Amino acid sequence: MPLTTEQIELRDAARDFAAANLGRDLEARDRRGAEDAGDWLGDWRKCAEYGFLSAQLPVEYGGRRMSVSSTVAMLEGLGMGCADNGLTLAVNGQVWAVTEAIKTFATDEQAGRWLPGLGDGSLIGSDGMTERDSGSDAFALKTTAERVDGGYVLNGEKILIGLAPRCDIALVFASTDPAAGRWGVSAFIVEAGDEGFERGLPDSKMGLRTAPLGGLTLENCFVPEDRLLGGEGDGGAIFQHSVEWERCFIFASHVGSMARQLEQCVDFAGRRKVFGTAIANHQSVGNRLADMRLRLETSRLMLYHAAEMKDRGEPCTMTAAMTKLHISEAFVANSTDALRIHGGAGYMTETGVERDLRDALGGVIYGGTSDIQRQVISAILMGGRA
């Protein structure tokens, strides 16, 4: 599944743009986290202006209507050129989890209301599913939506929500019929100015510190009926659609990060001399470089295989789980190898090597843990057999 010449050009142009314009003062911003909105929003707007956020949108909403494969190529280039893994994750999170869901399930009026802003960066969107007592059991929701005249009243709390502290809109999943379980879940678009809707402060976390993460609180929050996405009870289907896209492609830029990481390691291993020779000539280091390249290429193959399936309109639940599982764990393994290759220098914050490892570890949790992906794969293999 080689990339076309056009897709290679898209990827390389995105890489060059990102290298020249994004990720400045990253060490200092990583220390500060996402509390300084100016730091984060500046690069976010640059990403929007370049077209990363709108690549998948129809032309009538300000997009480029690119194929999935071409969009993935461009986002891989973003990761190759930008060392800010938090920023690249945030971009992918909005593109694949929020914008994709609204694009697919919105009415024409809803699409015209929110898609242009999501594409041009004037709107930041969050995907509000996770709760304190749900997590991997995604549909064990306690957030409720009670039908009232003209709309719904939402009550509940969401946690660990990407972009929540800065979001202008949130795709919130709530139970309209608790007795029906996942078939009683509905999806709503909540806006930042809605009374009773509160965005939490950015959480302090191990890695991906430049990407704001936090909670959402809804206390007697009235949401008009025209902000119900799909129909009542469609929330489960909307979430499953969204999470399949997210698992397939949220690592598009992190594959680019793995390529950047390998290039950095090859350069260092060729320059660093120990016992009178470059460390690349020592078998243990050479083996690590070879393993890093192997993981990068297998990750690319899985990423673009999933993209081709989506371009053909094929369902890919198992492929999504395998892609997310493989790339997330490959990024951790490559980041660990990069740290070992760099030795003491890699342990120091100024090199950025240790930051990649901290950033990579989050990938085995968000979007469904590695254990959940294995459970999805094994359940499909068993086909419901006891």
TrEMBL record:
EC category: oxidoreductase
Cross-referenced Gene3D superfamilies: Acyl-CoA dehydrogenase/oxidase, N-terminal domain (1.10.540.10), Butyryl-CoA Dehydrogenase, subunit A, domain 2 (2.40.110.10), Butyryl-CoA Dehydrogenase, subunit A, domain 3 (1.20.140.10)
An MF annotation (GO) of this entry: oxidoreductase activity
Residue ranges of the TM segments: none
Cofactors (names): FAD
Matching Pfam families: Acyl-CoA_dh_1, Acyl-CoA_dh_M, Acyl-CoA_dh_N
Domain Acyl-CoA dehydrogenase/oxidase C-terminal span(s) in chain numbering: 233-380
InterPro entries named among the record's database cross-references: Acyl-CoA_DH_CS (IPR006089), Acyl-CoA_Oxase/DH_mid-dom (IPR006091), Acyl-CoA_Oxase/DH_mid-dom_sf (IPR046373), AcylCo_DH-like_C (IPR036250), AcylCo_DH/oxidase_C (IPR009075), AcylCoA_DH/ox_N (IPR013786), AcylCoA_DH/ox_N_sf (IPR037069), AcylCoA_DH/oxidase_NM_dom_sf (IPR009100)
Domain Acyl-CoA dehydrogenase/oxidase N-terminal: 4-121
Keyword Oxidoreductase: yes
Superkingdom classification of source: Bacteria
Record keywords: FAD, Flavoprotein, Oxidoreductase
Enzyme Commission identifier(s): 1.-.-.-
Secreted is among the record's keywords: no
Domain Acyl-CoA oxidase/dehydrogenase middle: 128-221
PANTHER family membership: ACYL-COA DEHYDROGENASE, ISOVALERYL-COA DEHYDROGENASE, MITOCHONDRIAL-RELATED
Protein family per UniProt: Belongs to the acyl-CoA dehydrogenase family.
Protein name (database record): Acyl-CoA dehydrogenase family protein
Organism: Tropicimonas aquimaris
